[in-house]
Amino acid sequence: MLLPTALAVLTFLHTSYASTSVLLPLYIYPSLGEDLWAPVISAITTYPSLTFQLIINPKDGPLKTKDDDYKAYAAAMTLLRQAATTHDNTVFLGYVKTGYGSRSSTDVQADVDGWTLYPELLPNGIFFDETSDTAAQSSYYESLVSYTKTKIGNAFTVLNPGTVPAPDYFPFADQVVIHEIPATTDALEGLSDVDASKFSALLYSVGSDTYLKGNVTEVKNAGYGSAYVTDSASWDKLGSNWPSFVQALNG
Fold first, then answer.
1. What does the angle CA 26 – CA 28 – CA 30 come to, to the nearest 5 degrees?
2. Within 61-137, where are the H helices?
């Protein structure tokens, strides 16, 4: 069984479990005339009780011009919104990179602003990628989260250090990706004094459906707020086990 030791500790420490949502890096380009997002739309309608947090990432950030890319994303987002509106189970997150704290706040804020340019692409919140994990940088991210909430009403914010960061990040973020790692490792660890519903995990290159189901069960039992487990080694395509993953997470 993957990930047993650390998750068993987390299960012991958290006695009330939040339902675990899908956190999907939807970095697939939605070419016009192709149904590359169709499996995601199908899952949204098939599992109405499951929440889908979809990270939209056109160009390592928002689109800023109405070009062919805009047309493709607007068309695909319209289809996603139709399914989401019917079932009220989807959160759209705009991708913004932060360079592990090296990008200026002004540049990052400009990307947040970019997500508000077009109503067709307006997200429910922001996914801050390349997040630092040090306490010294936490105030930088807290200010970005505060700024986001002034630009997007009731904005849902996710930080992605990809590892367990300093505890300072959890009070102001809605969720924090504490693991972005191959699913073949068994080294998930959390923070015992932080509500696990703040945790998220992105696990890739899982070997089989048996291991996938083991990972999903352990993450759910630990009370993680969201997760994604895939046999793909990259985020620019859905893994072949996408149907198995959403079924396992819903079950």
1. 115
2. 68-87, 105-114
pLDDT along the chain (251 residues), means of 10: 34 45 96 80 95 96 89 91 90 98 98 95 97 98 98 97 96 97 74 92 92 91 95 94 96 87
Q: Using CA atoms, how far apart are residues 247 and 251, in angstroms rounded to an integer?
A: 6
Taking the CA atoms of residue 249, residue 16, residue 148 and residue 61 in that order, the dihedral angle to the nearest 10 degrees is -20
Which tokens sit at 47? 């599992």
What the block records as the tokens of 133 is 């994990």
Tokens of 200: 């998220």
Q: Are 164 and 178 in contact (CB under 8 A)?
A: yes
83 three-state secondary structure: helix
Reading the block at residue 83, the tokens are: 């399914």
